[in-house]
């Protein structure tokens, strides 16, 4: 496995790479969710590239950026064990060189949910992913469905800007109690970690209501919120039942819905979703 830190070295290493190339963008603190993306990329690519970069432009609060867990030595060992060929682990000034002054801003699909809760977040995501797509020139890039809206935003961007990298969504990997794996889980105490299972429990209750024939989106959102409300440690940011294609909130559910939520536990902001139907 090669580790490169500059745009120039990345291009040089990839110039002779066997194709197709698969890209897995990450912010590090790797877990089994990231590994599942690498496994999918490995199965479909001759060369697997992983980026490890905590992107300051997608964090609103400086504290959130600073507190994001980091351990490069551990990440490199995990990446190598998972079968990554090339890790791109640049510094901030390598991704955003002096004078950097371009923003990729996706429209309507980036506005609700995470876009509303975290102003500027998706501009940061789209900008860094556009740079990674340009640098790596991968045939495919792999993203987790845990960040459903992120996948939708990146797809829109790739389509609109005619970027030649295909966006491949991959299923969410969960703990046995249903909690979606996330680097942020590392910031929870053992007690908070146990309580965080409420996110998936609440989504399952909402999903079950829809599968049982409930058509009122309000009733579903209320059912999800009720389960979250039973966990005193959970402070709810939003609960949504939206159209899976537009992410607009639904009034009536016709079998298909994206249930999603954002919750803070011990000050750690966690998100999850379930696609129903
Ligand atoms: P992050 O390092 O959190 O920015 O995530 C990097 C990639 O891994 C993104 O495409 C995420 O959607 C994906 N990812 C994060 N958590 C999971 C998970 N539990 N299951 C599958 N993919 C995940």
Topology:
Layout: E1 2-4, H1 7-15, E2 21-26, H2 32-44, E3 47-52, H3 62-67, H4 72-82, E4 86-88, H5 92-95, H6 114-117, H7 121-136, E5 140-144, H8 148-160, E6 166-170, H9 190-195, H10 198-211, H11 217-229, E7 234-242, E8 257-265, E9 268-276
The chain binds adenosine monophosphate.
Residues 26-27, 33-34, 36-37, 143-144, 146-147, 170, 172-173, 180-183 line the site of adenosine monophosphate (AMP).
What does the model show?
The chain has 277 residues and is of the alpha/beta class. The protein contains 11 helices and 9 strands. The strands form 2 sheets. The chain has a 6-stranded parallel sheet with strand order 1-4-3-2-5-6, with helices on both faces. Helix 7 crosses helix 8. The site of adenosine monophosphate has 17 residues, from helix 2 and strand 5.
The CATH architecture of the largest domain can be given as 3-Layer(aba) Sandwich
**Small molecules held by this entry:** adenosine monophosphate
In CATH, the homologous superfamily of the largest domain goes by the name: HUPs
Mean of all residue-level pLDDT scores = 98
Query: How many domains would you count in the coordinates?
Result: 2
CATH topology-level fold name of the largest domain? Rossmann fold
- Strand fraction equals 15-25%
State the distance separating the first and last CA atoms. 41 Å
Helical region count? Answer: 11
Structural class: alpha/beta
Order of helices and strands: EHEHEHHEHHHEHEHHHEEE
Computed Rg: 19 Å
Shape by Cα distribution: globular
Strand order of the largest sheet: 1-4-3-2-5-6
CATH class of the largest domain: Alpha Beta
How helix-rich are the residues, as a percent range?
Answer: 25-40%
Number of strand segments: 9
Report on the biggest sheet.
6 strands, parallel
Runs in which pLDDT lies below 50 for 5 or more consecutive residues are none
């Amino acid at each position: 496995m090669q580790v490169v830190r500059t745009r120039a070295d990345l291009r040089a290493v990839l110039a002779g790479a066997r194709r197709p190339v698969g890209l897995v963008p990450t912010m590090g603190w790797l877990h089994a969710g990231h590994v599942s993306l690498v496994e999918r990329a490995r199965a479909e690519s001759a060369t697997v590239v992983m980026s490890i970069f905590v992107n300051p432009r997608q964090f609103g609060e400086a504290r959130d950026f600073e507190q994001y867990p980091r351990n490069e030595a551990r990440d490199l060992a995990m990446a190598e064990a998972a079968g990554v060929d090339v890790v791109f682990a640049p510094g901030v000034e390598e991704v955003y060189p002096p004078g950097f002054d371009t923003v990729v801003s996706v429209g309507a699909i980036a506005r609700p949910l995470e876009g509303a809760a975290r102003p500027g977040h998706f501009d940061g995501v789209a900008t860094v992913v556009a740079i990674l797509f340009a640098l790596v020139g991968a045939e495919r890039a792999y993203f987790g469905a845990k960040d459903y809206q992120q996948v939708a935003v990146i797809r829109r961007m790739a389509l609109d800007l005619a970027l030649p990298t295909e966006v491949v969504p991959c299923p969410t990997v969960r703990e046995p109690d249903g909690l979606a794996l996330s680097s942020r889980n590392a910031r929870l105490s053992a007690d908070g970690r146990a309580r965080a299972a409420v996110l998936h429990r609440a989504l399952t209750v909402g999903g079950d209501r829809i599968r049982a024939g409930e058509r009122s989106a309000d009733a579903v959102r209320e059912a999800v919120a009720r389960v979250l409300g039973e966990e005193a440690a959970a402070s709810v940011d939003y609960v949504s039942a939206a159209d899976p294609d537009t992410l607009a909130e639904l009034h009536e559910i016709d079998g298909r819905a994206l249930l999603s939520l954002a919750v803070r536990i011990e000050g750690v902001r966690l998100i999850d979703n379930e696609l129903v139907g």
